[in-house]
Write a structure and sequence with these properties.
transferase; MT_TRM10-typ_sf; two-stranded antiparallel sheet; about 300 residues; EC 2.1.1.221; alpha/beta; six-stranded parallel β-sheet; 11 helices; disordered N terminus; disordered C terminus
Amino acid sequence: MSSEYLTPSNEKNDVASATENKDGQSSANNGETETLSKKQRKKLMRHQKWEEERNLRKQKRKEKRQKRSLERKNQGEEGGEFEGRKRLRKEVTPSSPLRLVIDCSFDNLMMFKDVRKLHKQIQRCYSVNRRAAHPVQFYLTSLGGQLKQNMDKTDEGWVNWKDITVKTEAYHEVVVKEELVYLTSDSPNVLTELDETKAYVIGGLVDHNHHKGITFKRAQELGIDHAQLPLNSFVKMNSRKVLAVNHVFEIILVYLEKGNWQEAFFTVLPLRKGAIPLGQEGIATEDEEESDRDTETVTPNTTGNEQDQQ
């Protein structure tokens, strides 16, 4: 018989063989699936679903971007200001002509840990000035030594700071002496208002009362004006009257906005300092009594001592 023809028995064997192969493959797949735990199967299904919906998600993102773009365009045509995810700087008046100068010439008088504290206070000053309703002209003078090394090492981005003037020269070499006013509480002169034609100098010194009166003495030696903030005229404090560099800086910013010294003091001074309006009795809390332990924003002295710091 020709090989082209199959006998009924051969045909039956071939069908059986095909069935066996199919069943064997199916059994292998089932065996692979059966080896997965219930948790693994669910995870596999979720992954498959995530892959299947990839294009759909991409399309939704595209539509969302187009919608935001259209909103920005529409608001721009209406003269509005669009505020996206990035917070915009609030509307401010033009920068005040008043200048605030941090004198960084005390680098050799501080331990490195205190230099780091001064750096943090300067960072705070920069930050609040950028957000202030009436930002001032901000100066850093005599920058060098340990302070600059720490800034370069821990905050490389400081070189890109905006709205600040950084000088290696001393403040009296940057601003004419007639326009300078050194803030120090040893001064017999008390500020009643700020003169926007002046440059007010804050001593950048964290010394824990080791160099009493040094900023007042330097102001006298240079023959420049000096004054103290009117703290004693408005505030009674249950703890030491020590203000950090950033406290002095912020008080002046708030005063420029509010025009009220008392409001400026009580907006800025930490609660644990126990500050109360002059004439009112108050009892220091346990936190206030322990405020001397704070080494970041309370203890640091920017002009040399308790009386010298403004």
